[in-house]
Write a structure and sequence with these properties.
- The complex is a heterodimer of chains A (266) and B (333).
- The mean pLDDT of chain A is 88.
- Helices cover 76% and strands 0% of the residues of chain A.
- In chain A, α3 packs antiparallel against α4.
- With 266 residues, chain A is an all-alpha fold.
- By secondary structure, chain B is an alpha+beta fold.
- Chain B has 6 helices and 15 strands.
- In chain B, strands 1, 2, 6, 7, 8, 14 and 15 form a 7-stranded antiparallel sheet that branches. Chain B has a 4-stranded antiparallel sheet with strand order 5-4-3-11, with no helix packed on it. In chain B, strands 9-10-12-13 form a 4-stranded antiparallel sheet, with no helix packed on it.
- In chain B, α5 packs antiparallel against α6.
- In chain B, 24% of the residues are buried.
- Classes of the chains: A mainly alpha (266), B alpha+beta (333).
- At the A-B interface, α6 and α7 of A face α2, β4, β7 and α6 of B.
């Protein structure tokens, strides 16, 4: 697939996301279930993103790891895939589809503004642990997104529809806990990869430090839930949203702002 | 004693420790060079808190996977701490044909309990090759070393960027830092000879300044400049090696007219003469030592597996409770 065809496919996918968002808002206003239409079009968007990622991969003979564009494109793909799977398995996550799609739309629009020029992957980076590290990272962010979107949705409706909380609250903590497991695996796989690629398993570079801070924040929140059982549920939801914000800044911000060796390597 | 342990096992202390660690990690993101100092105290508090909790908290006795996860986490903390005490990190530059000498190693970090065995490391650097893709993109590195002495069964080892090789527990990893070196024969006025190597800056990164100063045994400072007959091709694959290279060396110094000599051509200098004998490659190796890494990896994976099992059990139980609640409310309706 040529670069121009890849960009066209991406534009089509972003347009699809805009259509999903519009449909979601319209159907909800009419009091209808938006999920069948939303999930249907999201599947088409996922197919387009799969095409764009696979086309780029085949053309460049390397995975989407290095540039901001690579990271945005691959995250668009993984976030859409993980959300569809998570919402299929846990129906309580479907209510927040509008928030999820809006976030994906922002990422999509951002990806259209950055250079799509590829940067060759250094030979020392090409190691199976890189794949496991990146896959675990994408699963983490993919699970964090529906958790945060559902928490935000619950926060927005806690006064108008407080009875809706139970099942959705459980879904928030389920996805966040699974995200924590994936995050832990990402740290271990990343350490093994770094030991092979750079000769050290941990070096406190900016991305490593902020990733560890994200892990600690989730651990703190999970312990807070056990320690302060009478804590208002909205505090927990706010914390989940904040952790997702921190994770997005860590994964999409830190690697491209820092001058550390981890720069741009995702 | 038990009341002390109960206080130490407090979940509130866990939260305080985690919060302190988060704040200190934010500080590390600004001042990473002092990372160890920032994390020692909160990690020690958390380790003591976890140890006490494992003894006194009943919740662990009923949840084997949660217990395993926390035991694994404690093991990871202990192993990381022990690894820091035992570690060694350093670097060394070796020229093709040169025997490893511990005296040439630059140490970057040495743990208090590091058992210094670098003197026992015994190998000689063999041929080096670094392959480049078109556009001067570094590809694979090939290094050959000969372990031990020829007379007592030398072992030849080939390795590259990803695997490195280990001797006496020290892992030697090739790096991007490598370049050309010339072997220089020094002959004083009495005819006594000694052989040494002058390494030039990393190549091809600094192909525009392949020069280095060298002080002769007689005390004269000479500037040697490597002049290669061919430039690096940027639009085709290329291999950095020391074989089949045509070159000359420019020799300059204070009060001396710059001269250019080829291999085997002697040139008179203060107190004797020098002769360029051969062109070689040098490789900058990163050295690290941490004998606990396999154990650390095992503890980390055991801990992770236990966490996954705990989460699965927890949410299976929650799902079952929800199913019971739903069917109960349906029956009531």
């Amino acid at each position: 697939m040529s670069m121009a065809a890849e960009r066209t496919t991406l534009v089509a996918a972003v347009t699809g996301l805009a259509v999903v968002l519009l449909l979601d808002v319209l159907l909800r206003r009419r009091g209808k279930s938006s999920w069948p239409a939303v999930s249907g079009i999201l599947l088409v968007v996922l197919a387009l993103l799969t095409l764009a990622v696979a086309g780029r991969w085949l053309r460049e003979s390397q995975g989407p790891f290095l540039t901001l564009y690579d990271v945005l494109l691959s995250n668009l793909f993984s976030l859409t895939l993980v959300y569809l799977l998570a919402a299929w398995m846990v129906p309580a996550l479907r209510a927040s589809s509008g928030i999820v799609v809006a976030f994906l739309g922002v990422l999509g629009a951002w990806s259209l503004t950055v250079s799509a020029e590829a940067v060759p992957l250094p030979a020392t980076f090409d190691n199976p642990w890189l794949w496991l590290h990146v896959t675990a990272g994408k699963l983490f962010l993919g699970l964090c997104l529906p958790a945060a979107a559902t928490a935000l949705w619950l926060l927005a409706r806690r006064k108008t529809a407080p009875a809706e909380g139970g099942e959705m609250d459980a879904a928030v903590w389920l996805t966040l806990s699974l995200a924590f497991v994936c995050h832990s695996f990402m740290l271990i796989a990343g350490a093994i990869w770094a030991h092979s690629a750079w000769g050290r398993y941990w070096a406190w570079d900016s991305l490593e430090t902020w990733t560890f801070i994200t892990w600690l924040c989730i651990a703190l929140l999970l312990h807070a839930r056990v320690t302060f059982r009478r804590m208002p549920v909205s505090y927990g939801w706010s914390a989940v949203v904040a952790i997702f914000g921190l994770a997005v800044l860590t994964f999409l911000g830190v690697p491209f702002l820092s001058v550390a060796p981890h720069k741009g390597v995702m | 004693m038990r009341s002390v342990l109960k206080t130490l096992a407090s979940l509130r202390l866990t939260m305080a420790g985690l919060a302190a660690l988060i704040i200190n990690c934010v500080a590390i993101s600004q001042w990473p060079e002092a990372a160890l100092a920032w994390v020692v105290l909160p990690l020690s508090v958390l380790a003591a808190n976890l140890f006490a909790a494992l003894i006194v908290r009943h919740a662990f006795r009923h949840q084997a996977a949660l217990l395993m996860f926390h035991v694994g986490l404690l093991a990871v903390l202990m192993l990381v701490a022990a690894g820091v005490l035992l570690r060694f990190e350093g670097s060394v530059e070796l020229v093709e044909g040169e025997a490893f000498d511990a005296g040439g190693v630059t140490a970057r970090g040495t743990g208090w309990l590091h058992p210094d065995r670098l003197e026992r490391v015994d190998f000689t650097q063999g041929p080096l090759e670094v392959h480049y893709r078109s556009g001067l993109q570094r590809d694979t590195t090939h290094s050959r070393v000969v372990m031990g002495r020829q007379d007592d069964g030398a072992i030849q080892r080939d390795f590259g960027d990803r695997e490195g090789f280990t001797a006496q527990g020290y892992r030697f990893m090739t790096t991007f830092n490598k370049g050309y070196s010339v072997l220089v024969l020094w002959r004083d006025t009495a005819g006594r000879e000694s052989l040494g190597a002058v390494n030039f800056p990393s190549y091809p990164e600094f192909d525009w300044k392949q020069a280095n100063d060298w002080v002769t045994p007689a005390g004269e400072t000479l500037t040697l400049e490597l002049q290669l007959a061919q430039r690096v091709p940027e639009d085709s694959p290329w291999t950095l090696s020391s074989r089949g290279i045509r070159y000359e060396v420019g020799v300059a110094g204070d009060g001396r007219t710059r001269e250019t000599i080829g291999p085997g051509q002697p040139i008179a200098v203060a107190g004797g003469e020098i002769e360029i004998v051969d062109l070689r490659l040098w490789m900058g190796y990163r050295i690290d030592y941490n004998p606990l890494l396999p154990w650390l990896l095992t503890a980390a994976f055991l801990s992770l597996g236990a966490l996954a099992v705990h989460m699965a059990q927890k949410f299976r139980a929650a799902g079952a409770a929800q199913t019971v609640a739903v069917s109960g409310s349906e029956q009531a309706a």
